[in-house]
Amino acid sequence: MPTDDTGHPALGLNDVVHQKTRLALLTVLDEAGRADFPYLKRLLGLTDGNLGRPLDILAAQGIVEITKGYEGRRPRTWAAITPKGEQALADEMSNLASLLTRFQATSDRKRDERPA
Amino acid sequence: MPTDDTGHPALGLNDVVHQKTRLALLTVLDEAGRADFPYLKRLLGLTDGNLGRPLDILAAQGIVEITKGYEGRRPRTWAAITPKGEQALADEMSNLASLLTRFQATSDRKRDERPA
Questions:
Q1: Closest Cα to residue A20, out of A2, A1, A46, A39?
Q2: Dist CA B63 CA A59 (whole Å)
Q3: Which chain A residues in 72-91 lie under 8 Å from chain B, judged by CB atoms?
Q4: Running along chain A, 116 residues long, what does each successive block of 10 average in pLDDT?
Q5: Whose CA, among A28, B30, B100, B107, lies 20 to 30 Å from A72?
Q6: B28–chain A nearest CA distance, Å
Q7: In this structure, is residue B7 part of a structural domain?
Q8: CA gap B4, B19 in Å, rounded
């Protein structure tokens, strides 16, 4: 749903998904399907510490799924977006699209009102 | 600038402006020019506490300007977006537009790959 009861699209944003690093992670996982931790850290310029916490929050909400395994003898950890996560990201993007439309309308109005 | 060096638009987001309540406040102030505290609280469903802190953060960055005055004998406080704030909001919106374009391209690709 792109808006909440007050009608302002910014209020419909879900902070679990909207927060900057979590939004970055979700968009990357949406593109990649699943990704291992070194890839995510490299792509998003994160350390172990600031990758782990946002992923934990997303996993606790069922928005991503963390899988541990081995590649040969090397332990690896993957993150993947879940169907619930895809829906949450789609809702966020729908809200952002409403916000952008509203911002653009305001910009157009201001331009029209400016003295020539 | 819509992207950072790694090329992912989510990384170009500026958290000062991106954070949900601050983004809501800035879009409202961009529309209204300036607004008093009761109006902002009502529109965004905020209390004194959760309106004050985000406004303080935005004011400390020169993104909004807080003015205290009187209407008759009643003290009032207004918030207004500054030119620096308008630029920061325009940058955020440009980043969000890039993110949306990328998300839409991924969605289209996934749809095309789905078995008929």
A1: A46
A2: 34
A3: 89-90
A4: 59 92 95 92 89 95 95 92 97 96 93 83
A5: A28
A6: 8
A7: no
A8: 18
| Main-chain dihedrals φ then ψ at residue B101, nearest 5 degrees | -60, -45
Number of H helices, E strands in chain A: 5, 3
- CATH of residue B67: 1.10.10.10
B 2-61 → A contacts, CB under 8 A: 6, 8, 10-11, 13, 15, 18-20, 23-24, 27-28, 30-31, 43-45
User: Is residue B44 one of the residues assigned to a domain?
Assistant: yes
ipTM reported for the complex, 2 dp: 0.87
Residue B1 located in a structural domain: no
The reported pTM is: 0.88
For the record, the structure tokens of A80 come out as 């993947």
**CB pair distance less than 8 Å for A23 and B11:** no
Token code pair at residue B76? 């009032």
| Domain around B58 | 13-109
